[in-house]
Structure prediction request, 261 residues.
Amino acid sequence: MGWLGAGLVDIGAGNTVWVLVVMLLAALVQALGGFGFALMAVPLAALVVDLELAVVAVSVGSLVNTALLCARTYRRVERKVAVRFNVPALIGMPIGLWVLRTAPQNPLKVMLGVIIVVATLALMRSAFRVPGDSMLKPAARAAVDVIAGWLSGILSTSTGTNGPPLVLALASRRLSPEVFRATLAFTFTVTGSLSLAMFAVSGMVSRDALTIAAVAVPLILLGQGVGIRLQPKLSNRRFDRLVYVLLILSGLSVGISGVTG
Prediction:
C-alpha cells in the first residue's frame, strides 16, 4: 500500500471508514441536488478528524466529484453568473485561508455549525416559496452574485463549505434544475481548483488528506452514479426535505463538538 497504507494507519481505521462513507453520501446528495458535498462532508468529517484535515481532504474529493459533474453538464452553464461568482471568489480565498491557519479550531467549528444551520434554513425558505418572478432587478441580482462569490471564496478556504452563498444567489433566479446544477458544478470546479492550489502553496496538503481523498474516489464515483440514476425517480420535494434535515443535524453536531471541545 505504500504511503496510502501509512496514511490510513495515521488516521485510524474507524475514522477513515466514517469519512469515506460521508463522502459517498455527499456525492449522492450533490448529484441529486446540485450542491451539498462539502456542506455535508466537512462537518461530519470534522467530528472525527482535525478540521484542517477535513477541509483539505473533502476539498480534494469534492473537486473530483464536481469536475465529473461539470464534464456532463458544461453546456448548460449560465456563463455570466459563473463569471460573477468565480472572479470575486478569488479575492475572498486568501482571507479564508488566513482564517483557517490562525483561528482556533473550536470557535471555527462553532462558526461552521452556525453557518450551516442558518444557511440551510434560508435555503428551505427559498425552496418552498411560491414560484414566480425574481424579487430582484437585474442590477441587484448582479450585485448579489458578486457578493455571493466573494463570500464563497472566503468559506471555500476557511471551512470548505462555499455552497450556501451561491445557492442562495441562484435561488433568486428562475433557472431550470439542469442550469442550476450545471452552473454550480462549473463554479465549484473552478473555485475548488484554486482553493487546492492555495492549500498546496501553504503546505496544508498532507499525506493524510491525500490518502483519504484517494481512497474515497471509487466511493465518490459510486455515490454520484447512484444519485444520477435516482434523479428521475425521486420526488424533489421529499428529497429536499431529507437533505435539509441531514444538513441541520450536521451543523448542530459540528457546532456542539466545537462548544464541548
Summary: Residues 3-260 form one domain. The chain has one domain: 3-260. The radius of gyration is 17 Å.
